[in-house]
Specification:
Oligomer: single chain
Radius of gyration: 64 Å
Structural class: mainly alpha
Helix content: over 70%
Shape: rod-shaped
Largest sheet: none
Distance between the termini: 38 Å
Strand content: under 5%
Order of helices and strands: HHH
Number of strands: 0
């Protein structure tokens, strides 16, 4: 039979070792879990930062593209406006030249008529009336021509105002792009590594429990060693009787001895 003290010590040592190993594994596992969660949080944060940067770049590209569209639209609108104004000025110039030509033609016609009257050799009030009538017709024609030209110029000025309004409308058809505000993601708060104190206390509690169990085992084994086994009666050879029977003294009979 083994020594009770040695058995108790072995029980305490094995229990303590298993407890320490279990607490050490649990501590290392918790450290690995914390490191993994922190790594996942960092990866998610880095991905969110890349998304924010990409969104800002996209907004910048949209703003640059819209600015380019606005510049092209302004250039086209300016060309169209200049063309409209040039056509109006050309039309007014043509109208002015046409009016002047009409006045000249009317003046030559009136001068020719007056010359014909004078050349006819007629004199008197009739001739003077005819000449005065020619002057009056010419003056009326020049006035009407000037009025028509003035109306044409006034109409041309109104058309220029309309062209200016159309030019402004073309410019206003494209507005600058208002970039959206992209905020940076919130940086995650990393978890601290687990404290070794609870695991040390757990290992100490396991060791204390193992030592107490070892002491209890040792005590139990010592108690068992103090007990003596009951005496077993030895068979009496040569006792007469039937094999398998019991003598009056309570001894079994095994048959005759040889």
């Amino acid at each position: 039979m083994c020594d009770p003290v040695s058995a108790g010590i072995a029980f305490a040592v094995v229990g303590t070792g298993l407890g320490i190993a279990q607490q050490t594994f649990a501590y290392q596992q918790e450290k690995a879990n914390v490191a993994y969660r922190n790594q996942v949080a960092q990866q998610n944060y880095d991905f969110s930062v890349l998304q924010a940067q990409s969104a800002r770049e996209y907004e910048s590209q949209k703003s640059i593209l819209q600015d380019s569209i606005i510049a092209n639209n302004a250039e086209i609108a300016a060309i169209a406006h200049a063309s409209d104004i040039a056509q109006l000025n050309l039309r007014l110039s043509q109208e002015q030249q046409a009016a002047a030509q009409k006045k000249q033609e009317a003046g030559r016609a009136a001068l020719q008529m007056r010359g014909e009257v004078v050349a006819s050799g007629r004199v008197g009030n009739v001739v003077d009336s005819l000449i005065a009538d020619y002057y009056r017709q010419q003056a009326n024609y020049d006035y009407a021509t000037s009025q028509n030209l003035a109306f044409t110029f006034q109409q041309g000025q109104q058309q220029k105002v309309g062209a200016q309004a159309q030019y402004a409308q073309r410019l206003a058809s494209q507005n600058p792009y208002l970039k959206q505000t992209i905020l940076d993601p919130i940086k995650p708060i990393m978890q601290q590594g687990p404290s070794a104190t609870p695991y040390i206390l757990g290992a100490a509690a396991t060791a204390a429990s193992s030592i107490a169990g070892g002491m209890q085992l040792s005590s139990s084994l010592k108690g068992l060693q103090g007990l003596k086994p009951p005496a077993v009666p030895r068979p009496q050879p040569g006792f007469p009787g039937v094999p398998g029977s019991v003598s009056p003294q309570g001894l079994p009979y095994y048959g005759p001895a040889f």
